[in-house]
Amino acid sequence: MRPNTSRNRRAAGLTIGWLSTYGVGMELRPPSYFALAALIDGPLHGYAIARRARELSGGRVRVSTGTLYALLDRALSESLVIAGEPYVEGGRQRRDYTLTPAGRALLADEAARLAHAATTVSSRLSATSKAVLT
Amino acid sequence: MIRERIGRVALRAYPPAVRQARGLEMLGMLLDAGELSRRAFARESGSLVLGGLRARGAMTARAATRRLVADACCQAVIIFLMLWIISALNTEAIGGPSQQLVLQAVVLAAILACALIGYERIAAIGGLAALAAYGPLPHTQLVLLAQVLVPIACLLVMVRAPQRRPRDPRQLLWLLPVCVLAALHVDAHVGLPEVLAVMSLGGLLRLLHDPRFAIACSLVWITVLLADAGRLAPLGLREVAAVAAGLMLTIAAGRLWIMRHAATA
């Protein structure tokens, strides 16, 4: 089985038009990244996704209603998430969203890219700070 | 209750299809997220309006250019009809009671009503018939004929490619501003270019999510330019019309380009 890399997904015709591209790799913008990451542990409804995204980002990312639904629309059209049936809870209509394997793979790619970028910069910083100290 | 009402108003920024599919869900999230404070509710409502405008913009950006131009021509027909009704009423007010002018205004209002509700082909055929009956005669000066070239072209486009929208009698509410503008035109002596300028401002505001009305207004400005070009009137209106038409077309095209770029970025 081929690894589910971003290159393979593009070859399979899965376009990711809402992501800005950087060379061969892809970059998810922080609201999209944390909103998708909110679904790693299981299906959540809109408001729960926004709350979880805020928690995961340490309060730095605030996903508003308009932004979240624009993001979910695109994620649905790219098959990164699937929507469940609507239900009523506390007098409010809700619908749970679930991360698909494609969405999970995209998140894994993005996490690896961010980790690689962080490692590169950290190692360069520590190397140059040693040089500055000596 | 008030918050729910405000939320429902904010939701109207979204296209009807999205509202139908997700409206209640978005409203639920808005009320949840806005529970913390008034400020949070205002921020969330604002984001909902912006999200709605973005969704409408994305729909427009996905439409083919030919479809957008055809829609703009159809909307231009509606503006032409509005201005024609106002002009007929004004002529009647200045020249004294005239059954013919009142009949003309009634016929044009009926055609406009058809166009607004969504019976566009019928309205376009009616418009062409009205032009033949009340417009300049073929043997009159070329200058007079020039001013009907754009309306005829728009009416023909309306016959061939009417707008794809559901028939909706609520659109008749657009007759209200026509009545207000007609009253202003007759009582306060506001000229037709000023009326068109007000409509153009509306077109510029709509540019946030849709360039069609701005293109429609620029087509009407082109007609004003053509109508005034051959006359020996002092300079002024034709320059205003030329600048307005050019500016609105350029801004609308630029906005459409930005919307398309944003939709694919």
Describe the structure in your own words.
The complex is a heterodimer of chains A (134) and B (265). Chain A has helices spanning 6-11, 30-37, 46-56, 65-77, 101-133, and strands spanning 20-22, 25-27, 44-45, 81-89, 92-99. The relative contact order of chain A is 0.15. Chain A has 5 helices and 5 strands, in the order H-E-E-H-E-H-H-E-E-H. Chain B is mainly α and 265 residues long. Chain B has 2 domains: 2-62; 65-264, no CATH class. In chain B, 79% of the residues lie in helices and 0% in strands. Chain B is globular, with a radius of gyration of 21 Å. The two termini of chain B are 39 Å apart. Classes of the chains: A alpha+beta (134), B mainly alpha (265). Chains A and B meet through helix 3, helix 4 and strand 5 of A and helix 2 and helix 3 of B.
Question: Which labels suit this protein?
Answer:
heterodimer, A: 134 residues, alpha+beta, Arc Repressor Mutant, subunit A, three-stranded antiparallel β-sheet, two-stranded antiparallel sheet, disordered N terminus, B: 265 residues, mainly alpha, 2 domains, 12 helices, 0% strand
| Order of helical and strand elements of chain A | HEEHEHHEEH
> What's the N-to-C terminus distance of chain B?
39 Å
Q: How is the main sheet of chain A built?
A: 3 strands, antiparallel
Taken as a percent bin, the fraction of beta residues of chain A is 15-25%
**What are the low-pLDDT stretches of chain B, counting only 5+ consecutive residues below 50?**
none
Quaternary state of this entry equals heterodimer
Overall average pLDDT of chain B: 85
The total domain count of chain A is: 1
Tell the overall outline of chain B: globular
Percent range for helical residues of chain B? over 70%
Interface with most residues = A-B, 19 and 24 residues
pLDDT < 50 runs, ≥5 residues of chain A: 1-26
Quote the average pLDDT of chain A. Answer: 80
SSE string of chain B: HHHHHHHHHHHH
